[in-house]
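Handout, section B. The chain below has 71 residues.
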Amino acid sequence: MDTLALVLIIIGALNWGLVGLFQFDVIAAIFGGVSEVVSRVLYTIVGLAGLWGISILFRRDGIKHPKQQTD
């Protein structure tokens, strides 16, 4: 789940970068506009991934490691 969320966060960040630099929204261009249902669903999924990313940020070390044995 963490990897999927990270991929979606990166896609969202790249899309916002294009909006900021070139006023070009890739999702809206592909799916027919900002107010189209598919675009809104994708924006919502990316937003939910961002919320999941907050949980990744506040984990103890940010990465789940298998338990290590100590000698």
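Note. The helical segments are 2-22, 26-31, 37-57. Compare this with the example in section A.
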